[in-house]
Backbone:
């Protein structure tokens, strides 16, 4: 089945726990594809150092930290399972934390996923909020976006499939080659996640391909599009080439009225957070969402 649109806007789904108990991504993504959803997304937290989850931005005031934060499987493996059973749905990281990853091995893994999926990988990225997690995995938390920018530069160079070398602040290596190349040319779309930082617009226009805002107010999309257009002109980019995909918070943008507001905000797409807690229920939720939306 071809992917469906809602008033010109792509609609994807996000599964916060891509494990067997909560829904095998090979099954969930296939069902989403069959129903006409455009994309399927998986999150990342490799480790949670003891005590560090207290600062989780998604925690309710006065509430406990959600259990899913401690149980996330690796997103690239989850998306690889999904790619094996699907053929059209795009497969995105929502988001992957690049300061915590080695760019050489990550470039290899992501190019392999894009290669096997036929060019369906979407690279949603962020720099993270958890300082102990970032640092235990080799990240420079205080300068994590500087490190992220260099990480991306390394991967873009490696994805050419030619011999390249790099001598930077965080990564240093002699001439080497890394294949396979991604199926999508020149590389998978790089979408920058953000929670309230105005610096994201300059970063997207300078070295990204799109903005992946986690927000509840469509007016943020309207204002953000204006900022992106301004920076696109500064860096010689075509504003229309910069994607905006709204990453909906848990429980939001699930009515037609809310989706209308998102579509009118100039978002190119929206990703809905699946709320069901078990494999059977998540498939039922997908079916109900498709009936309501499409």
Residues:
């Amino acid at each position: 089945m071809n992917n469906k649109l809602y008033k010109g806007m792509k609609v994807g789904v996000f599964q916060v726990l891509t494990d067997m108990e909560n829904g095998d991504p090979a099954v969930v993504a296939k069902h989403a594809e069959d129903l006409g959803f455009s994309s399927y997304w998986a999150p990342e937290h490799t480790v949670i150092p003891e005590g560090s989850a207290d600062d989780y931005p998604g925690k309710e005031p006065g509430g406990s930290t959600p259990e899913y934060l401690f149980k996330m499987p690796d997103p690239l493996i989850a998306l690889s399972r999904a790619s094996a059973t699907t053929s059209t749905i795009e497969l995105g990281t929502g988001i992957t934390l690049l300061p915590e990853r080695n760019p050489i091995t990550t470039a290899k893994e992501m190019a392999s996923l894009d290669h096997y999926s036929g060019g369906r990988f979407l690279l949603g990225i962020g720099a993270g909020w958890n300082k102990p997690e970032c640092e235990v995995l080799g990240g420079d938390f205080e300068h994590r976006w500087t490190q992220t920018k260099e990480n991306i530069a390394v991967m873009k160079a490696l994805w050419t499939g030619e011999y390249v070398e790099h001598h930077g602040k965080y990564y240093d290596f002699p001439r080497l080659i890394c294949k396979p190349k991604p199926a999508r040319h020149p590389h998978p779309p790089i979408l920058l996640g953000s929670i309230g930082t105005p610096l994201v617009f300059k970063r997207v226009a300078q070295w990204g391909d799109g903005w992946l805002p986690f927000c509840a107010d469509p007016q943020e999309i309207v204002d953000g599009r204006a900022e992106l257009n301004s920076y696109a002109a500064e860096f010689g980019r075509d504003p229309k080439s910069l994607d905006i995909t709204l990453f909906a918070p848990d429980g939001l943008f699930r009515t037609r009225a809310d989706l209308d507001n998102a579509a009118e905000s100039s978002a190119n797409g929206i990703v809905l957070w699946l709320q069901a807690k078990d494999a059977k229920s998540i498939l039922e939720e997908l079916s109900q969402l498709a009936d309501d939306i499409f």
